[in-house]
Amino acid sequence: MARTVGDRRLAGVTWDLFGREPEIQFLTRIIDDTAAGAGGWHVLTGPPGIGKSRLLQAVLAPAAARGIAVASREAFRLDPAVPLVTLTGALRDCSPETSAFAWLARHEPERADPLGTLQRLRTSLEQAARENPLLIVIDDAQWMDELSALAVRELIPALASSPVRWLFAHRPPSGADRSTPGHQVVRWLLRDGTPPIRLRPLDETAIAQLSAQVVGAEVDNTVVALAASCLGNPLRTEQLLRALVRTGQLVVVRGVGSVVGDALPSGFVDAVRELLESLSEPAAWLLRSVSVFDRPFDIGEAARLCGRTAMEMAPLVREAMDDFLVEDPLGRLAFAHDLVRQAVYSMLPRSLREQLHRDVAAITRDAGRPVLEVAEHQLKSGRSGAAEAVRLVRSTAREIARVAPGAAADVMLRALDAADADDPGRLPLIADTVGLLAAAARLEEARRLGGESLDAGLDPQTSALLQLGLAEACKHSGLDRQTVEYADAALRHPEIPVPVQARLHAVRTHALCYLGELAGADDSGSRADTLGRQSGESAAVVFGLAGRSLVAYTEGRLTDSLAHAEAAVELADREGGEAAQRHPRIWLGGALIALDRFDEAAEVISAGRRKSDRSGAAWADPLWHYFHTALLYARGRLDDAGVEAQSGLAVAEQHEANALAMPLLGMLLRIAVRRGDLSRAQDHLDHVRRLAGDGVTAVPEDVLWAEAVLLCASGATKAAFDLLRDFYPRLLERPALFTADPASAAELVRIARQAGHPGEASMVVVATRRYADRNPGSRSATGSAAHAAGVHHSDLAGVQRAVAEFRRADRPLALAAALEDAAALGGDTYPEALSIVTRCGAERVRVRIEALLRERGAVAPHEAAEAAPCLPQLTKAERRVAIEVGAGRTNSEVAEVLYISKHTVDAHLRNIFAKLGVRRRAELARIVAQECPSIT
């Protein structure tokens, strides 16, 4: 006797993981590793329906059984409309509950202060990982929102030393999907890291096993052959078999399932349609209607959309949940798989689909959902709705640009596709879209769209706005010449609004300074100041003043540099808002370092960094790292300076801020040479050349001088001079190198003399004397002039004056260089120079001085005997971090205790783990307890 199969509930995922034994074994090892205290990340990738979600679900219970806290969430297509929803949604549902994430339930950080929340998230994750190892699972990661994607890029390296394991499921991109924040962050993860776990189609044996389990009986070849038409995709196979069961086309005879009949479903959508038609009409209408939500929804929203009461909806929801819907941890409803939702959605006629999106737009607006979600639905509701979507996005463009510029840009791009070519609103829309693309760091798209539109006969105001967006995009990526070209083109229109003129001049100031056109840069900064104050555009005033501070620094006018920076800080503190977001303390710190006011500079950088962290201004991070590196270098702390610069470079690369990568690479190159690591210095130089080949510009003090230092260290002094030949004449008007590195003046003299060019050596002496006269209160400037003249004229007394000035300025590396030159002219100062460079970690100079002492028949003096430090393989800075971590502190707590940045702690820990050969904080704690018992 035959019976129809289908009395089992097939909702959700019900099959075993047939054919996935290797993947299960690998994930089991990962879970065991995490339980033992290690962190890391992995990406599962494969086409929709291949079983990624099921595989992720399979690790949750074993993880919990091993004492791992689990935070899991599926991302949805509309996640980009709600900043941080993907990540905070996972953490809110963490099991077991932890107080570390309790604040996420009390607040809505994604709407209140989304950028500031990133910093708090890191601290909370560190706290949670201290309580239990933590597994964070993000399914359909390609749909994660922009801030969650940014957080992932920040948090994965930051938490690398903590027992935090990340698992992402991701489908390969196609078409426009390639630019989603989720796809971008997955590409970043896979670029240099762990290979992905690729899920392949199931083989015939696994398909047969799957078919038997879905049917609930053995199956014959008719079933296996039909299932094979789904190309090894388990979800499609399961949906097809469901449809056969529902329509009575799959029956069991004597314990074996078999397909009967000729009219078989032709594909996945047909299979879903068969299931849908098996429901009552009200339940089927419910599913068709809610398929437009594209995210989890509550029963109240569904009731309003269907025109029913919540009570009337209850039996329909129960019926739909048998095969289509599931309940999430927050009690909301969603389709069991997005492929099923898409299939149902595809069955809606266009006119009905547009009306449903119109209704959902009203529902989401009334519920206070984010503007971008409302706009998404309006965009899909027909031409009038698209216009309303654009109006909404444009009205809040500045706010959206801080949290989800990419999602907003995508709305605008789709609206552009829908707009008529002669629509008068099209050109202003292009200008706004370019600005959003630039804010999202989608610079090539911004430049392409803007470039295509500039010759379209724009009105002056629209053209200027478009060119402002392009200028800002180019400046961010280090393309200073293009920045100036766009700004100049916009400023040629006298009718443009004054606030826009002020913003154009502000960005132009910085670009011109980097191009070496200092007079024009200072004039543009002055105009930004005047026009910005006139129109109330305070952010342009602050950025213009910061640019003028940079110009004055470059020209060696240190008092002016300080005054401009102080004025910018005072205005930013008074006005707040976007003006404060320019973070002018960055340039104030640089001016204070130039004036040898190191303690004040440290306080300014620390305070400014805290403000920057609270505001979530990720763009400023590389600059903070650069100026903190400059401070540490000036104080002779080479190890700390190197870690700080490396941290800044990592952040710059994460945000594709190539303009900020250049000066950090220059610092790393010079530090590597001082340490005697010429191979690493060459690696940094190669990196600089790759960026320069892409059109990224940098000032000569950042990279040209660094390359010359490397050439000299390699014995190629003549090549170093040839590289700097055109640089010497500019020193009179551009003495910034003496400001950044006071010892460089004497080295420039030495290079020119050894290359047989005394005229250029004299240029340095004249330039440093003028520089010192301009800055009579600067010990470093006076010492730099005395040092250069002393070396040029072989004047011991002059070099000794430099020694005295550098000693008062507290510049150890410059002091050591002057002491070494004094010794070469007959002084007895090698021992002190050797002591300083040894303390600073300047290994190359130490080796040279010891060799000179041996030539003189002298024995290199030794420092007073000290007890051997614990963990001798670590630097002092690394040892301090290791001891604090060994005491149980999180990276954030270590940063607070040691007054360094979190990124610097992260970098130190990476070095510590590599040197000690450990992978877990617990292992480090054991080593610290064994080797440093008196400290711990």
TrEMBL record:
<protein>
    <submittedName>
        <fullName>Helix-turn-helix transcriptional regulator</fullName>
    </submittedName>
</protein>
<dbReference type="GO" id="GO:0005524">
    <property type="term" value="F:ATP binding"/>
</dbReference>
<dbReference type="GO" id="GO:0004016">
    <property type="term" value="F:adenylate cyclase activity"/>
</dbReference>
<dbReference type="GO" id="GO:0005737">
    <property type="term" value="C:cytoplasm"/>
</dbReference>
<dbReference type="Pfam" id="PF00196">
    <property type="entry name" value="GerE"/>
</dbReference>
<dbReference type="InterPro" id="IPR027417">
    <property type="entry name" value="P-loop_NTPase"/>
</dbReference>
<feature type="domain" description="HTH luxR-type">
    <location>
        <begin position="867"/>
        <end position="932"/>
    </location>
</feature>
<dbReference type="InterPro" id="IPR016032">
    <property type="entry name" value="Sig_transdc_resp-reg_C-effctor"/>
</dbReference>
<keyword id="KW-0067">ATP-binding</keyword>
<dbReference type="InterPro" id="IPR041664">
    <property type="entry name" value="AAA_16"/>
</dbReference>
<dbReference type="InterPro" id="IPR011990">
    <property type="entry name" value="TPR-like_helical_dom_sf"/>
</dbReference>
<dbReference type="InterPro" id="IPR000792">
    <property type="entry name" value="Tscrpt_reg_LuxR_C"/>
</dbReference>
<dbReference type="Pfam" id="PF13191">
    <property type="entry name" value="AAA_16"/>
</dbReference>
<dbReference type="GO" id="GO:0003677">
    <property type="term" value="F:DNA binding"/>
</dbReference>
<keyword id="KW-0547">Nucleotide-binding</keyword>
<dbReference type="InterPro" id="IPR036388">
    <property type="entry name" value="WH-like_DNA-bd_sf"/>
</dbReference>
<dbReference type="GO" id="GO:0006355">
    <property type="term" value="P:regulation of DNA-templated transcription"/>
</dbReference>
